[in-house]
């Protein structure tokens, strides 16, 4: 007897299984899906009607007969045709109607009742669809009365005797008048479609007097005058978008004769828009007092010169039109990437100081008499970099003379280089107060007021810029390794800005001393190696007295004591956020860690001290240091206790 081959049999079985699997995937499954789709479409009134296949909708109701025809210029554009006129249709209204029709189903077939009893002998509602597949007249659906129950209506096709029920929402969808279907969004052009905006407000009707023209030039929006001032794209979009998306309450005129009665001879404001094709539309806002009984109110009207249609707008639309040129102008006076800066030149009216960044320190050079070459004071130079990295204007002085602004003979000129490339040049003009000066920059050449104590930030004497070299014969080698208090880099905490990068130095130890009012001192040693930016952020805030006087606003026994919120309720911060810094440090007793919102990348100024190990917080919050003195004091902290003073220190290792 021949012996069977089990391996051969297994291979045959696997082959047959593979064939069956392929048939299932590529033949049977698609047919099953097709069958399911046909079954689902069978009950739909218009079968598998697709939105993009519709060319037009025709319907009638007690308000009249209407036709909605897709505009050839775009799939989302529709034209509303009535018996007398044509208008641009409201996209949202058409979208809603189409959605209702696509979803409408035959809910139940009925034995033929008397048509006059159900409103189908002379139906008030009719609708038909024209599609790409067939441009001939399609079947017309007739809709009658409500059924007694279940929110259905009676319906039938015009070429059939069969009666059925369908959802009442279909009838609601076509029970419209022309005003419901007309486009109520006056502006057609998006901001990216425009190349010029002319704004003219006469200072009437709650609007400030303002007049200017802006245009696209040199790749951005600029003021069309001698200043050629830069416009902020973000602020311009913030103003224009609500206007573009504003919907009218209704229509008050469709002829020039009617329009003339609505106050357009004394307009409140005109807005002239020119698109990239050179087409121009000038829109006008007018108002008229309306008396209703004993009450007087104002109605606001919006219309373009070349349109007969006048829109009735809400009062909020008038408010959204309010605009000042300063509001949309670019406020940034400087945009300086401080990481790239490796050379700084500070010039007074008679003297110049140069500083060059080397591998681990700044080198100073100057033509000041008696001012020797030496090591630059990094704290002073970093303070300058921080102060001038992102200056914002509080006021512009366009048209003012150089002598009026002090820029004809600037008191200081600061130049920031990367190699031989000039990154930014800033001239300091008139001092308006102890905390305000006029400056002019390469990035934004308009004379601008900025908040800065210039004498504190950029002194014109050499001493603050130079570190005295220790003399080996008189100074102990350990003297340079003493703990040094980190001094302020700005004159006020209100001037603080986000650090562009970490400021901690390699081979240095950083500590903090938190003096809790009435209780004592807590010393924290930071781990700058595993959390360099988080530590730098704390040092930056603490050295500039940000934490002084703030309270521990959240204290939970055996859990944490949280502080660092200038608001005092857990919602405040320094004015910026920074990303979670991942490391393997654990939340042990005495750890200091960053508090954040639900998003871990929302670190700011709030931190917490840990009463007992909290392993569930590991990897979720950034641990960046440990209490090394005053651990016994930690457990005495209560909610509301104040951090009287927080000082930070640096020590070379």
Spell out the CATH superfamily of the largest domain: Cyclophilin-like
CATH topology of the largest domain: Cyclophilin
Give the end-to-end Cα distance, rounded to a whole number of Å: 90 Å
Low-confidence stretches: 470-475
CATH class bucket of the largest domain: Mainly Beta
| Discrete helix count | 13
**Using DSSP, what is the number of strands?**
36
For the biggest sheet, the summary is: 10 strands, antiparallel
- Rg computed from alpha carbons, rounded to a whole number of angstroms: 37 Å
Strand order in the sheet with the most strands: 22-26-25-24-23-18-19-20-21-27
Please report which band the strand proportion falls in: under 5%, 5-15%, 15-25%, 25-35%, 35-45% or over 45%. 25-35%
Overall 3D shape: extended
Average pLDDT over all residues:
88
Helix fraction by DSSP (H/I, runs of at least 4): 10-25%
For the record, the count of structural domains works out to 4
The helix/strand class is alpha+beta
CATH architecture of the largest domain: Beta Barrel
């Amino acid at each position: 007897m021949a012996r069977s081959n089990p391996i051969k049999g297994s291979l045959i079985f696997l082959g047959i299984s593979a064939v069956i699997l392929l048939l299932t995937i590529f033949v049977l499954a698609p047919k099953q899906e097709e069958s399911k789709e046909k079954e689902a479409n069978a009950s739909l009134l218009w079968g598998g009607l697709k939105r993009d296949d519709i060319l037009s909708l025709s319907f009638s109701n007690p308000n009249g007969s209407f036709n909605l025809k897709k505009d050839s210029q775009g799939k989302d554009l529709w034209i509303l045709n009535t018996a007398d006129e044509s208008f641009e249709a409201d996209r949202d209204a058409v979208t809603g109607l189409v959605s209702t029709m696509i979803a409408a189903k035959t809910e139940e077939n009925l034995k033929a009742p008397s048509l006059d009893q159900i409103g189908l002998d002379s139906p008030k509602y009719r609708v038909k669809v024209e599609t790409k597949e067939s441009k001939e007249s399609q079947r017309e659906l007739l809709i009658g009365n409500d059924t007694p129950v279940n929110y259905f209506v009676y319906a039938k096709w015009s070429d059939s005797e069969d009666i059925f029920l369908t959802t009442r929402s279909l009838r609601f969808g076509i029970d419209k008048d022309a005003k419901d279907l007309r486009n109520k969004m006056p502006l057609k052009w998006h901001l990216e479609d425009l190349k010029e905006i002319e704004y003219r407000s006469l200072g009437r009707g709650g609007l400030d007097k303002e007049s200017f023209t802006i245009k696209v030039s040199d790749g951005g929006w600029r003021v069309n005058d001698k200043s050629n001032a830069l416009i902020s794209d973000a602020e311009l979009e913030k103003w224009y978008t609500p206007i573009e998306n504003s919907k009218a309450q209704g229509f008050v005129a469709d002829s020039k004769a009617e329009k003339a009665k609505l106050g357009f001879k004394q307009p409140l404001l005109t807005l002239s828009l020119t698109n990239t094709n050179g087409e121009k539309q000038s829109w006008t806002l007018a108002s008229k007092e309306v008396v209703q009984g004993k009450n007087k109110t104002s109605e606001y009207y919006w219309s373009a010169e070349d349109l007969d249609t006048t829109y009735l707008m809400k009062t909020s639309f008038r408010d959204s039109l309010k605009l000042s040129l300063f509001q949309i102008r670019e406020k940034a006076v400087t945009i300086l990437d401080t990481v790239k800066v490796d050379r700084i030149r500070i010039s007074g009216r008679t003297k110049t100081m140069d500083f060059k960044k080397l591998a681990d320190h700044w080198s100073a050079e100057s033509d000041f008499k008696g001012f020797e070459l030496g090591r630059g004071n990094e704290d002073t130079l970093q303070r300058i970099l921080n102060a001038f990295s992102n200056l914002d204007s509080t006021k512009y002085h366009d048209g003012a003379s150089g002598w009026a602004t002090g820029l004809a003979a600037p008191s200081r000129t600061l130049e920031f280089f990367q190699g031989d490339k000039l990154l930014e040049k800033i001239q300091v003009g008139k001092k308006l107060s102890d905390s305000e000066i006029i400056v002019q920059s390469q990035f934004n050449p308009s004379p601008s007021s900025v908040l800065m104590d210039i004498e504190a930030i950029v002194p014109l004497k050499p001493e603050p810029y130079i570190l005295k070299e220790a003399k080996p014969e008189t100074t102990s080698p350990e003297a340079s390794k003493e703990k040094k208090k980190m001094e302020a880099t700005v004159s006020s905490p209100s001037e603080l800005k986000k650090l562009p990068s970490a400021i901690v130095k390699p081979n240095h130890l950083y500590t903090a001393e938190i003096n809790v009012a009435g209780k004592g001192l807590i010393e924290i040693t930071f781990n700058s190696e595993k959390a360099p930016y988080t530590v730098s952020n704390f040092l930056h805030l603490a050295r500039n007295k940000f934490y002084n006087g703030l309270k521990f606003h959240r204290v939970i026994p055996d859990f944490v004591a949280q502080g660092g919120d200038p608001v005092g309720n857990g919602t405040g911060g320094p004015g910026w956020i920074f990303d979670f810094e991942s490391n393997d440090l654990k939340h042990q007793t005495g750890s200091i860690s960053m508090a954040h919102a639900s998003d871990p990348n929302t670190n700011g100024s709030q931190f917490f001290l840990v009463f007992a190990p909290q392993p569930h917080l590991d990897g979720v919050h950034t641990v960046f240091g440990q209490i090394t003195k005053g651990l016994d004091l930690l457990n005495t902290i209560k909610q509301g206790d104040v951090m009287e003073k927080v000082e930070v220190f640096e020590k070379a290792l």
